[in-house]
Amino acid sequence: MTDQPDSPEPTEEDVFEQKAVRLAKRERLIAERKDAAGGAYPVSLPITDTIPALRERFGDLEAGAETGVTAAVAGRVVFSRNTGKLCFATLQAGDGSRIQAMVSLAAVGEESLQSWKELVDLGDHVFVSGEVISSRRGELSVMVSEWTIASKALLPLPNMYTDLSEESRVRSRFLDLIVRDQARDTVRARAKVNTSIRNTLDGHGFIEVETPILQVQPGGASARPFVTKSNAFDTELYLRIATELFLKRAVVGGIERVYEINRDFRNEGADSTHSPEFAMLEAYQTYSDYNGIADLTQELIQNAAIAVAGSTTVTWADGTQFDLGGEWDRVSMYGSLSDASGQTITPETSVADLAALGAKAGVDAPPHATHGKWVEELWEHFVLESFTKPTFVMDFPVDTSPLVREHRSIPGVVEKWDLYVRGFELATGYSELVDPVIQRERFVEQAKLAARGDVEAMTIDEEFLRAMEHGMPPMGGMGMGIDRLLMAITGLGIRETILFPLVK
After folding, report:
1. Which SS3 state, helix, strand or coil, does residue 456 take?
2. Residues of the chain with pLDDT under 70
3. CA geometry: angle at 304 spanning 298 and 306, to 5°?
4. Could you give the count of Cα atoms lying within 13 Å of 285 in the half-sphere of its Cβ?
5. CA–CA dist 61, 71 (Å, integer)
C-alpha cells in the first residue's frame, strides 16, 4: 500500500473500508505467525538502539555515506512510499524524532519486499534492523535487512500535514501526540514545570505530602463541589475543592514547610481558563507572611520558566515573547480600583454606593453580593485588562477571604494577594488566619451567605477548628494552578495544557 503525504482526510466510509482491509492483514499475520510467541503482536523485539540515539550519533552524516554499523530500532510508520524495487518509510519515535527505513529487493529478497508492500500501513509499529546510512538525499536511514510488524494499526492516522482542529486534539489526544510536535512539547514542558517546582520547594526545606481527595466536608476555597457516595461508609462524600485545610492540619502537627501538587475538582463552569478538574500547587510556610510567600511564588514561576524555555523570557505558541523576569509590581486592590474608576473606594464604601457604580459601569453581581464581592467585580471590570506584566494585587476585602488574617495596619482588608499573568489569575497567597475564635466567626458568616443562596460559601468545619485550637503557628500560604502556569509559559489555553481534559 502506498500512502501519499498530501492525501485528504479519510471520510467515515474510507475509515470503515480501511479498517476492514487492515483487519484482513491482521488475520494474515496471525496465520503466518501462528507458531511465534505473541502471534500477530510480538511480545518483545531485539532492539539495540533508539531513533533519538541514532540521530544524536549519526545526524551529521554526509549524503550517501555508509557507517558499517548495524542498528535494530522500532517506530511508528508516519510516511510510506513504495516503488518497484525499493520502499521508503519514515519511522517516528515517541519524542517525534524520525529515521527513514529503506527496504530494497537486494537486501531483503522478493518475498520479504512483497510482504512489506502488502502488509505495512501508516500507523503500524515496525521493527527494522540493518546498516545505518545516509540516503542520496542526505536523510539518515536504516538499510533494512530484517523487519517485522510489531503492532498493526487497524485505523488510519489523520493527515500528518494538516492541523487537527482544537476539538479533535482534546478529544483524541493520543492522535494529537502522534501528529503534532507542540502537543508532545507541552507534555514535556509540564513535566519540567513539576520537577522545577519540587526542586525549588525542596531547596527551601519544604516536605511534599498527600491529602484526601474524598472528603466528608469540602473546604479550603469558595467553590461548588462534586458530590458522590461511599457504599462502604454509607455516607455522602465530596471531591476536594482544595487541600488547604488538611495541609494546615499538617502544619499544626509540626510539618512547618509543607506542599502538595494535587488534583482538585470544582463543579462549576468551563472556559479558556477554567476546567472542572485541574492541578494545583498549595504550599504553607510557618513564620512567613503574604509578602514572603509572594517572593517564593515569583521564584517558583521564574525557575519553572527557565526549566522550560531556558530563560525567564518565554515564547508563546503564537510567537509572542513575554518577560517573566525581574521584580513584579505589587498594587493595592482598593487603590488601583479608585484610580481606574475615578471614584474613591475604601473598605467603608457602602454596598449601595458600589452597586450604583456597578450599574453605571454595566457591572453585574449576584443578588446576595457583599461589599467584598462588589469590590472584586468592579476591580475586574476597571483594572484587570490594564496589566501588561505579572502583577501582585494586594489587600482584599475581609468578607470574601474567610481563611485570611486581617491586615496588620489597614482596617477592613486582609493580607491576601492574587497574582495576574496574561490577564488571568495565576496564584493567590495569604498571611494565614491562625486564631480559631476569629476563624469560627468567619465560618459562621459564610454559613449565613450559604443560607441566602451562595452555593460557593464555606461551611463550618469543626475538625479543622479543633486542629486550630491546638495551636496553629503564624504562616504564609499560597495556591497556584499548574495548568495556568503552563498557560503563562506556553501561551496556550487550559484545554491544551491538560493532557486529557474533560470534554462533553
Report:
1. coil
2. 1-10, 37-38
3. 105
4. 20
5. 15
CA pair distance 422, 319, nearest whole angstrom: 14
Give dist(CA 42, CA 53) in Å, integer: 23
425 annotated to a ligand binding site = yes
The CA-CA-CA angle for residues 361, 367, 369, to 5°, reads 75
Amino acid at 35: D
Report how far residue 29's alpha carbon sits from residue 331's, in angstroms, rounded to the nearest whole number.
68
pTM: 0.90
CA distance linking residue 261 with residue 280, whole number of Å: 6
- CA–CA gap between residue 15 and residue 472 (Å, rounded): 62
Long-range contacts (CB closer than 8 Å, 24 or more residues apart) made by 308-313? 308/189, 308/192, 308/193, 308/196, 308/489, 308/490, 309/489
DSSP codes of every residue in 115-147: HHHHH--TT-EEEEEEEEEE-TTS-EEEEEEEE
Order of strands, edge to edge, in the sheet holding 391-397? Answer: 207-208, 257-265, 277-286, 475-481, 424-431, 413-421, 391-397, 329-332
C-alpha cell at 4: 501519499
- Partners of 102 in the β-ladder: 88, 143
- Alpha carbon of 226 to those of 267, 272, 403, 423, 500: distances in Å? 5, 21, 22, 28, 19
Tens digit of each residue's pLDDT (9 = 90 or more) over 246-279: 999 999 999 999 999 999 999 988 887 889 999 9
Residue linked to cell 499475520: 29
Residue 478 C-alpha cell reads as 499560597
Instruction: Write out the E strands in 220-318.
Output: 227-230, 235-239, 257-265, 277-286, 313-315
pLDDT of residue 6: 45
CA angle 340, 342, 348 (to 5 degrees): 95
DSSP 3-state assignment of 498? Answer: coil
418 is in an annotated binding site: yes
| Rounded CA separation 414/405 (Å) | 6
Please compute Rg for the chain using Cα positions.
Answer: 29
